[in-house]
Specification:
By secondary structure, this protein is mainly alpha-helical. It has two domains: 51 residues; 48 residues, no CATH class. The chain is rod-shaped. The longest helix has 48 residues. It is built from seven helices and no strands.
């Protein structure tokens, strides 16, 4: 009968030694996933509330329609200075700093 008690003690010890950390880890993963979902929903709500119309640089600058259709800015959905900055190895063009489109753009919400 002693061997049965010893076996039960070993099984109980292993269960506590293995199951408890695994269970706590699973609980932490579940809670962090719920927190991430909540933060993503808040970010979507915030983005929806702060949606502002971007200035259309081709309209402000008076570009001819054929040039405006070929402009990479129209397809990107980003502000023109961001598109040209990406094309220029991350540097903002000097022309952007004095451009009316850049100066009239709304500041991003923080």
């Amino acid at each position: 009968m002693e061997w049965l008690e010893a076996l039960a003690a070993i099984v109980f010890g292993l269960a506590i030694r293995l199951a408890l950390p695994i269970g706590l880890t699973a609980l932490a993963v579940y809670l962090l996933q719920r927190l991430d979902e909540q933060w993503q929903e808040e970010a979507r709500d915030l983005a929806a509330r702060n949606e502002v119309s971007r200035p259309e640089c081709w309209a402000i600058k008076g570009c001819p329609p054929e040039r405006a259709e070929q402009c990479p800015v129209r397809e990107s959905g980003q502000p023109c200075w961001q598109v040209f900055r990406a094309m220029n190895d991350g540097y903002l063009k000097d022309d952007c700093l004095t451009c009316d489109v850049f100066l009239q753009a709304p500041l991003p919400a923080t």
